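Model: Ready when you are.
Researcher: Fold this.
Model:
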Amino acid sequence: MNLTSLFFLLLTLLAALIYHKLPAKWRSSWLLVISAAFIATWSWQFIIVLLVFGLINFAFGLRIARSGAKTNRWVLFAIFTNLLILFVFKYNHFYQPALARLLETLGMPGASDGLKILLPVGLSFLVVQVISYLVDVAGGRLPAECDLIKFWVYVLYFPKLLSGPVERARDFLPRLSEPLKFDRALLERSFSLIMVGLFRKVFIADALFRMIPEKAFITPLDYAGQHLFFWLLGYAFAIFNDFAGYTAIARGVSLWFGIELNLNFNLPYLSHNFTEFWNRWHISLSTWLRDYIFYPLSLKLTRHFRQPGNLIALAVPPLATMLVSGLWHGLAWNMLVWGGLHAIYLIGERVAGLIKHPVPLSKQSLWHKALGIVITFALVVLAWIPFKMSLPVAKDFLIGLFKWVLPSRSLILAYLNGTTNVVSWSPLNLPNPLLLLVIAIAIGFDLTLNQKGSERELRSLRFGWQIVLLVAMLVLITASLFTDSQAPFVYQGF
């Protein structure tokens, strides 16, 4: 079931109304039922897999809490088990051919295909969530959850299931026991978030994806460099608005149940440097990587290499963190390159900070701030090339970017004089004007939100405008049912 469908929102609204009428002791059970029903729209097998997954980690949490001196051993075993589950289900393409041949010799052809069928959506998100829970229990930052129903809700909660945010158990679980609060201000905020999410997903991301030919990321040398340039720019805005759109809708829907999900995006393309970018992009995952990989590794290396500015202590933490981020997105060389590029960006930034003390943002001139945004954005966009494509194709794409083909003078004159049948932008080797328009809208939308204080606190509208907002939201959702805009979210497969 798609989060942008009218059917989903109406059913969720009905479920929320029932939720508010239930006694407090039954609300967690109702959330579990709703989440299971949502999962069942994908596959009933997913329910079994995720319930077993949750039960395993529930048991691990209880065991770690009473393990005493053997805590570290149990934590490592639990983490290894979760990573093994992720590998078995998500990365079965590494071993499935060999397994298929083995099963075929044993008289069970096709038996290995069941792993593909049983792969739950959002498994990568769930694995990092439960790992944070287990580590926090081991570190004494969180008591082990003794209520299996509540723990299952933490794992299966449907708004965050497909693409996050990555919720920490120490943030999420207490919210299930808090007194239920819901007022007009919360309703207005939820509608605002849903509207922002729908606009980003349906009218920016889906529109851009439809205008970018998939072959451009398969055989890029077949196209002129200027087309590749603007398609890459379009892809950058498409993937951001797709993911940020999902998060906004998920946060808005979750507010109907009185549960606040964490902010996941804060206008990252307006970042002045790469450290700021990763504080604004996929915030829930980047902070997870910071707290569980970067900080512990940085602390250990700083204690070992006591001299200030040691290159190993400076470079290894961001390198390890970003490589793990790349592998989380997929076990492939192109993802490692993507993570490695961002590691190089961050290391370069840290080294530059040692050579020359950075000027605080508040004291920088306007042109200095603008230059920082442009440079950061340009390098982030370049890093999307290996993220989207295999390395050989990425190399061809980079080569193709510099092969701009301008229309001939005679064709331009014939076009201006109306003596040619060419009426499309493509034969003239010009970028699609509609693509440029949507990109301009995406930029303008982010700049507007930035002027209003970013997405961290969306300003409440007056009651009359709230009615208009609600009607517009329903119109946009209904319109999406009669178009091909019901495309899956990019991060849905993770």
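Researcher: Now this one.
Model:
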Amino acid sequence: MIRKECNKFSDICDSMSDWYKPLAWVLLFFGSAACTEGPIVPEPEPEPSGFTIHMDEENIVEYQEDEQGIYPHLYTAYLVMENLPADEKILYMGGCYSNGSTEPDLSDYTLIYDYSEHDTFQQWDWESGPLIWNCLALYHLMPGTTYHIRGYVKTDKAEYFSNTMEVRSNFTAPMEETTDAYTIPVIFHLFPDADGSYPVKEWMLKEQLDYANRVYSNYFGIPGQEDTGVRFAPATHAPDGKPLSTPGMIYEKEPVEIDSANAELEDRYVWDMEHALNVWVCPITNVYEDEYSIFAGFSYFPFFDENELLPGCDIYKPGLATGIFLNKQAVLTANSISTFAHEAGHFLGLAHVFGQGGDYCEDTPWYDRNAYMQELNGYTNFKRTDANGIQYYSDNIMDYSYSFLTGITPDQIRRIRYTLQHAYFIPGKAGKEEPATRISGKSRRFGKNPVRYTGGHTVSVKTIIFSTKFLSIIKLSSQSNFRPEEQSVCVSIY
């Protein structure tokens, strides 16, 4: 219609005398603009959805895994979802939590599941009653800390957050002060995303240190575990003596990704390794993945002179570097506060308790990890079966979850103390000094065999991990203490 009217106007102009034509074309220009642009009509506001989500006290389930009651309790949060309209579809569901904000969001710890093709979610009869589903499984909470948790749902039309609930670990006693422990200063190098933001928050890294100190001090008091005499503290000064504005942390200016199979960093990102334990927090590529695990980070065994080599560790060569790499995405994921403590064990000479060649410690039972994972098949199981067929609860920090990850044994402590006495790159007065501590202007290379750590176990569904700005769908599946197809689905009566 618009085009027809405009063409008709042009024909009229052609029939006019020549001196009218310029005026006509001016009128045509403005008339055409009016025809094509027209008044801007605002889009109507979408009708509000009747969909609601919430949690109540009975939806936070605390349970004791072991018969003796000596281990930290586990927590599961269930989300109540009601009245989803017929024309609205659930895509993702999960939760988030924080030890600070009373209204945590997707910039805090998250655990989000992809349910866009899950039969129960997509075929649920919402007129029959609410759908109640596990949205958060919390295995490792900082003792003495109150966490605020919220359920989260994303549909094809909107995002929803539930009300806030509180969860607090059953371990509440403060950690005892120790005056004679060997303290290792730690510096976290935080690298920005491409947009310049720093998604990993300072309190998350503080929790990493705090949890490590509880593990290394035998805070949990588990039989068979002892105080290592080692503590970790945020570095207070840069190598040049300047005080840090935020102890233990430096915000690097450029984005960095690390290839786990061929780690290399510019020298400017490597602080004097005898001044502080370097921990780089950034995306990590080229990691091995399986259907059970989220890749959390990696480290390197300590370096020794050949005549003092600790079994299972590496021989010192000039120019090499050491330290810990934490996967930025894993730090943001729920149940991740044990990663630094685990990798620090490798830095101090400890191997995995399930390694094929053993871990050189007689008081850490060995188990067949592959057989355990096959039997697990997505379910929660904190028990292991050792080489003699005896069952026990996994609690060593050098195991993987499902594990309580509470402490370290006497034989492991002997390896740690040997490392402190004989290894290179031990911050502080311990260890041996490298002849040349800096290679300014060049890249630092690391050892050939990084020791990797995979975090929580997973189920065979897609996972999404949220950052502060966007969500990315990745190959791994989300942590859960239930297989989705086996979760209890019920209609609650309120």
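Researcher: Key takeaway?
Model: DSSP finds eight helices and 27 strands in the chain.
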